[in-house]
């Protein structure tokens, strides 16, 4: 007899048959006596179809009108899912973002939620209805339609769960949970029963695209228990929760994350004077290019080498900017390398366990993987390596931290 | 410097290219200094696509959810047209029915407009913006999305024109105006410059599907000057207006309307007792079958023949009901005839001109068309004839009332 918010993404509602399957799943929860609020995305392909229409008309479509346009996609799904529930004898009612009302700021196409009016939803739940809400959208204070940006349906679900004080927010996807690493690279990758919000953030930002980062942050901030599970198979999925709820005996490392999506830029022979880092990175930041790992080597004769990584898509812009900087600084040379990868070990347990870094570096050295850069945080150690070594490094670390061992030994997944 | 409401139907906005053409037309009016409110339908095919999705899920889709579903079609068009206007440097803003707000009753899928809040629209017009409104939809007092039924976009346009006290409501279609009769039947059919609301109602109900009947009634009730014109060609179209604005010297007849969509039922040998009409038509009315022309012949020996027409699609149901009635009344026989047609001469001028009926009957007699039934109103005379004579009758009457003559002679069209 819990209050559950369930979110189904575009693939899960990609056809009328799949919407019927979702209705069957939701109906099961309702029949078990739970109060259910369902958040849905647009049917897969629909948002792209609408964007193509807009692009056929205007090269850079007006953001306000773009929101009016694409928000129809989720509205269609809410109506169809409500019909599919009615067919099963389940009372249900659809709401779009304006109707709920989900109040956002007025930053069209990337709005942020300010507040949610839960009165209507509670009234419907009390009347025994399933409430079906359009994800990804809201309204500003003037009644203009806004959207939260791609993947915003996850955020809608978490925000609704927080506003309604739901017992759990369930995110249904096409995978059955969060894994110790990508199963396509490591056969022995295992689904985690639990993971902390912080770990999930590190895993998500490294390319495990199970959940939107903003949704995880939001869930962490408001302590909304979040569960990732499969739309297509039964199973408990992975619960994302607060650290203190985890077993103190939990192992050190939650998983191995990685990212092929970065590129490395090195400015060689920079005069080693104060403010040089700002002179190099300032113009990059002004161009809205995000910088990830940064390394400044000590060079010879008052010269230094300055290296950093950016998203691979930003490489052409970043190097164009740096060409100018090299000239201005009288530096020797710019070198770019898109063939790199980032591999990280992630786990809140490393806070209290020394030696994670040494296990990591030793394991990589033993298989001949050269580490180019290192970056650390409280719960993560990342290394930049040559891209061709990525799979080898991930498999090696997965074994080194006993993640792919017998669950009895690894422990963490069943903690 | 007028305030104009323009409505573009599904065919006119059926592709991004066509939406661009509509924007070009609207931009022209705006550049000429007019205030413009545009009402749009869903892109042609879109409403049917949505209905098919609903039917794939639920045999009889829930009306409330049907409205949530199909109302997205018009919303998409408002966004795309606004973008197309922005591209041309015209400031524009889209609104759906809830945003305007167009308040309706709660009769989902066939709601009626109760009131329109014109504050937001006037504010935008004053700021120099074109306002683009989704046709066909509104909201009930609880914020539920409603729709006005098929063709409801015409009604939205007329209601907005009335609420805004617009100088003219222009309905853009794929024909360039209202004709004296169907040009596919009579080569000499001519576009009318003007027609009265009452005449238009008679023409429309006879199958000239240029305008929704409800929209014409609404326009007449609120004295909104209505103009029908082509989306694809330039031209003045046809102005639908109040009678007293027309030239008193206008000719008698506006046009010849017709309808192949009726069928005739005759109950022969009915006992001629009081209440027999009710006994025959009562069960037909209870089955929601609309009856058009009714004729009761005087028969022999206290018996009478009772004839009436219904929509051809209702014939099977109507005859099944009458089979039982024939038995109950002890009537002699039921005869059905789907091969009939109705031809009408329509014109407010016939009120003050005697002899319209005699010209009509004489002209038909001269070409050997037998009249089966006659029905008259203040501004219309209709005859039921054998279907095979339809084209002959329409051409004959079109000539008899000098509608296809040299415009100099016919006069009406240029009145």
UniProtKB/TrEMBL annotation, chains A, B:
Source species, domain of life: Bacteria
Reactions catalysed: L-aspartate + ATP = 4-phospho-L-aspartate + ADP
Keyword Amino-acid biosynthesis applies: yes
Xref: Pfam families: AA_kinase, ACT, ACT_9
Its EC number(s): 2.7.2.4
Entry keywords, A to Z: Amino-acid biosynthesis, ATP-binding, Kinase, Lysine biosynthesis, Nucleotide-binding, Transferase
Pathway assigned in UniProt: Amino-acid biosynthesis; L-threonine biosynthesis; L-threonine from L-aspartate: step 1/5; Amino-acid biosynthesis; L-lysine biosynthesis via DAP pathway; (S)-tetrahydrodipicolinate from L-aspartate: step 1/4; Amino-acid biosynthesis; L-methionine biosynthesis via de novo pathway; L-homoserine from L-aspartate: step 1/3
Family: Belongs to the aspartokinase family.
Name the record gives this protein: Aspartokinase
CC per GO annotation: cytosol
MF terms in GO: aspartate kinase activity; ATP binding
SUPFAM superfamilies: ACT-like, Carbamate kinase-like
Residues binding substrate, per UniProt: 47, 74
GO term, biological process aspect, one: threonine biosynthetic process
Domain ACT: 265-339, 345-415
Entry annotated with the keyword Kinase: yes
Residues that hold ATP according to the record: 7-10, 173-174, 179, 184, 209-210
Protein species of origin: Luminiphilus syltensis NOR5-1B
NCBIfam families named in the record: asp_kin_monofn, asp_kinases, PRK06635.1-2, PRK06635.1-4
Top-tier EC class: transferase
């Amino acid at each position: 007899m819990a209050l559950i918010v369930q979110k189904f993404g575009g693939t899960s509602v990609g056809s009328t048959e799949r919407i019927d399957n979702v209705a069957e799943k939701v109906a099961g929860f309702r029949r078990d006596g739970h109060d259910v609020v369902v958040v849905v995305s647009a049917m897969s392909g629909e948002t792209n179809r609408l964007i193509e229409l807009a692009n056929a008309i205007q090269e850079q479509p007006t953001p306000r009108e773009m929101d009016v346009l694409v928000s129809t996609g989720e509205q269609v799904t809410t109506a169809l899912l409500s019909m599919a529930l009615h067919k099963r004898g389940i009372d249900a009612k659809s709401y779009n973002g304006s109707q709920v009302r989900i109040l956002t700021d007025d930053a069209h196409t990337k709005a942020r939620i300010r507040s949610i009016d839960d009165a209507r939803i509670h009234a419907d739940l009390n009347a025994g209805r399933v409430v079906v809400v359009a994800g990804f959208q809201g309204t500003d204070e003037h009644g203009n339609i806004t959207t939260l940006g791609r993947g915003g349906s996850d955020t809608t679900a978490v925000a609704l769960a927080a506003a309604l004080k739901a017992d759990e927010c369930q995110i249904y996807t096409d995978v059955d949970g969060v894994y110790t690493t990508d199963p396509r690279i490591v056969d022995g990758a295992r689904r985690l029963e639990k993971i902390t919000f912080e770990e999930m953030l590190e895993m998500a930002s490294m390319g495990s695209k199970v959940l939107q980062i903003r949704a995880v942050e939001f869930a962490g901030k408001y302590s909304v228990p979040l569960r990732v599970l499969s739309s297509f198979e039964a199973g408990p999925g992975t619960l994302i929760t607060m650290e203190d709820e985890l077993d103190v005996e939990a192992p050190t490392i939650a998983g191995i994350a990685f990212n092929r999506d970065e590129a490395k830029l090195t400015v060689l022979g920079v005069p080693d004077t104060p403010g040089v880092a700002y002179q190099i990175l300032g113009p990059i930041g002004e161009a809205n290019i995000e910088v990830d790992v940064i390394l400044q080597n000590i060079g010879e004769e008052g010269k230094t080498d300055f290296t950093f990584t950016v998203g691979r898509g930003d490489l052409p812009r970043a190097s164009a900017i740096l060409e100018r900087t090299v000239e201005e600084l009288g530096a020797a040379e710019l070198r770019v390398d898109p063939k790199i990868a980032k591999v990280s070990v992630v786990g809140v347990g490393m806070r209290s366990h020394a030696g994670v870094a040494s296990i990591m570096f030793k394991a990589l050295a033993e298989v001949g993987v050269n580490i180019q850069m290192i970056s650390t945080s409280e719960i993560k150690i990342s290394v930049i390596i040559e891209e061709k070594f990525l799979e080898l490094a991930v498999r090696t670390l997965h074994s080194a931290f006993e993640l792919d061992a017998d669950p009895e030994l690894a422990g963490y997944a069943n903690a």
